[in-house]
Please model this.
Amino acid sequence: MRESYDLPFTGTFPMTGPQQPPPDPPFLPADDRRDTLRVPAQTCQATRVRSFVRACARSAGFGADAVAEIELAVGEAATNAILYGCTGCAPEAAWVTVIAGATTAGPHLFFVEVWDPGAGFDPNSLHPTTPDDMDSLGGRGLPLMSALMDHVALRHEPGRGMCVRLERRVGSRP
Model:
């Protein structure tokens, strides 16, 4: 059973050895353009994810400020996937898949999906960050992503993993 959450707040990696990445997630929308990057779940790979998303956002028509915001939001999602979504996974399953795409029919929508093989979590169980929490380590990633993007959704499919989908319309923000 697929679980999906809408948050209430507003390339390919070269293979080496026997490790192979998981197949593409099965339920992606039919978009006009899509690029995929798969990286091993290592913190040093977050830089590759940000570079990949930066290039995809530029090619979708975003200006420098919007590209920086998208890069920050996706970098946060990818870092969380690497640090938390692959915990306890066998090395051959510890991959993070990043899919970036854009639609040209109707409103020009740019999206990024960050997948990990983890069990996921219920974002409704999280407590909102308050001013008292500002010195704590962690806990601000989902509100940050939501502030920078037009829409953020989380979904989990048992046996497939966790997906964070971030969307932004070209020209939606100054």
Q: What stands out?
A: The longest strand covers residues 161-169. Residues 64-85 form the longest helix (22 residues).
